[in-house]
Write a structure and sequence with these properties.
- With about 190 residues, the chain is mainly beta.
- It has a domain at about 105-190: Single Sheet (Histone H3 K4-specific methyltransferase SET7/9 N-terminal domain).
- It contains one helix and 19 strands.
- The protein has a 16-stranded mixed beta sheet that branches. Strands 2-3-4 form a three-stranded antiparallel beta sheet, with no helix packed on it.
- The longest helix has 24 residues, at about 1-25.
- The protein is globular, with a radius of gyration of 25 Å.
- It starts with a helix and ends in a 12-residue tail after the last strand.
Length: about 190
């Protein structure tokens, strides 16, 4: 008999919790998931608002076929947390992380064929460390280095065929080496 009473108490507790879910969904702590096309959402001065209140929760966008195109996390109206984009073929396109609206950590992107497209490192919304980009054939297109958002140290770029396009070093703000600039020639006939 005691086992049956425990079972009934658990069911009653579960029903109470379920009945409270709608109230939690609309609390100011988290507003849940909202489709980005919702007319109640408004962007203003770098903040996202839902019905006039800075939005906390996750927005999403869908492709016409119903597949997820993008999800963005917000806290107090600013991007905060993991943001993801998908290509129409369901291949993950990008993963980016934000803290209080600022880019942080490793940001990655992929071509529709699944090959890596970029890896960027951010600290307080500025490039920091190594930044890499690839062509959709998998060959490296760019490897740059940054300190506090500014180019620093070795910088290299390649053409899609693998030939070097630029290869220079930044020392105390000055560039030394091959910058990858094209020479302009006037072809005047006359």
């Amino acid at each position: 008999m005691a086992h049956r009473e425990q079972y009934l108490n658990k069911i009653i507790l579960l029903l109470l919790l379920v009945s409270m879910l709608p109230a939690c969904k609309n609390s100011p702590v988290s507003m849940g998931r909202v489709v980005m096309s919702d007319i109640r959402l408004k962007q203003k001065l770098g903040f996202l608002y839902l019905k006039g209140v800075p939005f906390t929760g996750k927005t999403y966008e869908l492709y016409d076929n119903g597949d997820t195109a993008k999800t963005i996390c917000y806290k107090n109206g600013k991007e905060d947390g993991l943001t993801r984009w998908w290509h129409p073929n369901k291949q993950l396109a990008q993963e980016r992380f934000f803290v209080n609206g600022w880019k942080q950590g490793l940001h990655k992107g992929w071509w529709p064929n699944g090959k890596i497209q970029f890896e960027y490192h951010f600290v307080n919304d500025e490039y920091e460390g190594e930044v890499r980009e690839w062509f959709n054939n998998g060959k490296v297109s760019r490897v740059f280095h940054y300190a506090a958002g500014h180019e620093a140290g070795s910088q290299k770029m390649w053409w899609e065929d693998g030939k070097i396009r630029a290869n220079y070093v930044i020392v105390n703000g000055e560039k030394f080496g091959l910058f990858g600039q094209k020479l302009c020639v006037n072809d005047i006939k006359g």
